[in-house]
From TrEMBL:
Identification of the protein by name: NnrS family protein
Organism of this sequence: Steroidobacter flavus
Keywords: Membrane, Transmembrane, Transmembrane helix
Residue stretches in coiled coil: none
Chain segments annotated as transmembrane: 28-47, 67-85, 97-114, 120-139, 151-170, 182-202, 276-299, 305-326, 338-363, 369-394
Length: 403
């Protein structure tokens, strides 16, 4: 079965011109999928063989860094390079600047795969070039338009500083700094998912329901939205000062309640027939679940909740990335916003993988087996994604428009 059949759409009339660098989402949504399928099997090998990937720090820090600054950063780059032209009315990013940016991302992954065999100055030079290059591309249109999303530049800048702190930890073999840097980066992305998810999940849900002829009014709840964002930022601030403290647990419990309340008003139960929409709800649902598990672990010393971090990273981050990339790639290539059975299976496989990984401690002596099963389900999800979406991302729009 070919990719077009899997996606539920014939490719008979699709032009064959190579279009990978004609718009910002194309190379980075493809790279996010490729890296998801490369880095997790690599980590499973490292985990089972006890290999060392980076000088001076434990192997799991390589895994954490590459999931954030490799996989997630590629998806964030693709999203922003596509969203900023839409937000500002500026011309889309493509051509040589996009090729250069893609090469910078690839170079960063190469030096981290060879981290124990290259000098730290080279790791720093290559790795710390990518986010500033994105900022240089995004800043002119955002600043010219005085767009409300201009603070995204600040967020990217903070992520860069945190990455610089992680590289510094490699230089001095500082395990504590490396761990603190990764936790802060995760919390920053949690804020991003909270803000962006709060915009797109209800909006896309309402649009999908209206297309079906259902009249749905999603009431604006600005106070709740501000509270959710404020609590998520507060969790990040307290974690920075006193991670795993009583205050962190209390804030996590409050954030879990606020996120769940927010999600409950988005009519997720009405989207069961549309995988492209319910996947977004599942992705966002991992936020209250993650905060609840964190609170149980910190406040109640519930041992099986100790892997709450994976509810955020593998759950919220990866599921939202898969949901957004599959939707945006269709919309920005002139295709109907409908996914086929293969992608629905990918959503389910990833969700099952998250459940297994988050609850892996319940397996007891079979913990390593549970981790392998979770990684296998992750690979199934992203292999299906690449089979369906690699041709879509490489070929031109089906409607003949630029991009």
């Amino acid at each position: 079965m070919d990719a077009a059949t899997l996606s539920g759409r014939s490719s008979a009339c699709q032009p064959r011109r190579f279009a990978l660098f004609e718009y910002g989402f194309r190379p980075f949504f493809l790279l996010a999928g490729v890296y998801a399928l490369v880095s997790v099997p690599a980590w499973l090998w490292i985990y089972t063989h006890g290999a060392t990937m980076l000088p001076g720090v434990a192997p799991q820090f390589w895994h954490g860094h590459e999931m954030i600054y490799g996989f997630a950063a590629a998806a964030i780059a693709g999203f922003l390079l596509t969203a900023v032209p839409s937000w500002t009315g500026a011309r889309g990013f493509g051509g040589r600047p996009l090729i250069l940016l893609t090469l910078l991302w690839i170079a960063g992954r190469v030096v981290f795969f060879a981290g124990d065999r290259v000098p730290i100055w080279l790791i720093a030079l290559v790795e710390l070039s990518f986010l500033p290059a994105i900022m240089l591309m995004l800043a002119p249109p955002l600043l010219r338009a005085r767009n409300r999303n201009t603070p995204m530049l600040f967020v990217l800048g903070v992520l860069w500083l945190v990455d610089a702190a992680f590289v510094s930890a490699l230089r001095f073999g500082d395990q504590v700094l490396a761990q603190d840097a990764l936790h802060l980066a995760i919390n920053i992305i949690l804020v991003l998912v909270t803000v962006i998810g709060g915009r797109i999940v209800p909006s896309f849900t309402a649009n999908a329901l209206r297309r079906r002829g259902e009249t749905v009014e999603l009431a604006a709840r600005p106070l709740l939205d501000r509270t959710v964002i404020g609590l998520t930022i507060a969790v990040a601030a307290v974690d920075l000062a006193a991670r795993n403290s009583l205050a962190s647990g209390v804030l996590a419990a409050a954030a879990a309640i606020a996120h769940a309340w927010r999600l409950s008003g988005w009519y997720g139960h009405k989207t069961l027939r549309e995988p492209i929409v319910w996947a977004l709800h599942i992705g966002y649902a991992w936020l209250p679940i993650g905060f609840a598990l964190k609170a149980l672990w910190l406040l109640g010393d519930v041992s099986w909740a100790a892997l709450w971090l994976h509810a955020f990273t593998m759950g919220a981050f990866a599921t939202m990335i898969l949901a957004v990339t599959t939707r945006a790639s269709l919309g920005h290539t002139g295709r109907p916003l409908v996914v086929g059975r293969a992608i629905a299976i990918a959503y389910i496989a990833l969700t099952a993988g998250v459940v297994v990984r988050v609850l892996a401690l319940v397996a007891g002596d079979a913990y390593r087996y549970a981790v392998t099963v979770a990684g296998g389900l992750w690979c199934v999800a992203f292999a299906l994604y690449l089979i369906v979406y690699a041709p879509i991302l490489i070929r031109p729009r089906v409607d003949g428009k630029p991009g």
